[in-house]
Design goal:
heterodimer, A: 128 residues, alpha+beta, four-stranded antiparallel sheet, 5 strands, B: 132 residues, 38% helix
């Protein structure tokens, strides 16, 4: 129980530290040892500078915590070959962190990339 | 306090077992209203499942990881099926699809009373051979 509570507080502190800010490697490394996650954050921050992450629900068990969150940002850098559209995006996602000694040591993430593409104004077309 | 904690643990364990039983019953089967009502009190979830089973009949659901706290169970799951009915205006392609999703259930008295779901629909669209 305590472990779960501590992890929730840690994740809230982490989200508050990053949300709405320019995300540097040092800032990330303070909370994260999972290099893939750091890369992912820096990549997204280059396309959506200072994007916000808002936690809407947290479920914690053992050293794992599942966060349902919203990512809010503005498309101001190249993203997957798409030139900046300067559109605002608001995307639901689920991210799970495994935490050890106040560091995120691994994660997985599910987001609806189709919703993201729609918000960026990218149209869907059939393959033929 | 300790008893309280144990009860909480037990509840989380029971809910996981309930969800596994629910997945085992539905996965790979035709999802009838009777079957769904046995586990679910949430009309929107019943509608979503029925709609999906129409487009991907007898689709399979595999739970890969469960995180449980209080009356909530969050499942990282894999959905596997064949596109045999119209989906989002797309005629059946008869292609096999397999994609990850996260579903969260709230359970009261052995019934799912509410849920939320996040899936990467772009993975599904890609597997159906539709370009974005």
């Amino acid at each position: 129980m305590n472990q779960a509570m501590n992890n929730k507080e840690f994740v809230l502190e982490y989200l508050n530290a990053l949300s709405g800010k320019d995300k540097t490697y040092e800032m990330c490394a303070h909370y994260i040892t999972d290099q893939a996650l750091i890369e992912h954050i820096l990549f997204f921050d280059s396309a959506f500078p200072k994007y916000e992450l808002v936690a809407e629900e947290m479920t914690s068990e053992g050293n794992r915590i599942v966060v349902r969150a919203r990512m809010i940002g503005k498309h101001e850098g190249v993203f997957g070959g798409i030139q900046p559209s300067y559109r605002k995006i608001d995307l639901p996602l689920v991210v799970t962190y495994t935490i050890e000694n106040r560091k995120i040591i691994s994660h997985w993430l599910v987001a609806d990339q189709m919703a993201l593409m729609e918000q960026l104004g990218v149209e869907r077309a059939t393959a033929e | 306090m300790l008893t309280h904690k144990r009860n909480g643990m037990n509840q989380a364990m029971k809910n996981k077992e309930f969800i596994l039983q629910y997945y085992n019953t539905l996965s790979g089967a035709i999802k009838t209203p009777e079957m769904l009502q046995q586990f679910i009190n949430d009309p929107i979830l019943i509608e979503t499942i029925t709609f999906f089973d129409g487009a991907f009949p007898k689709y399979e659901m595999t739970a890969e990881e469960m995180t449980s706290e209080g009356n909530r169970v969050v499942v990282r799951a894999r959905m596997k099926g064949r596109h045999e009915g119209t989906w989002e205006g797309i005629m059946p392609t008869h292609r096999q699809v397999e994609f990850p999703m996260v579903v969260s259930y709230e359970i009261v008295d052995n019934k799912i009373v509410t849920h939320w779901l996040v899936a990467d629909q772009s993975a599904l669209i890609e597997q159906l051979g539709i370009n974005t």
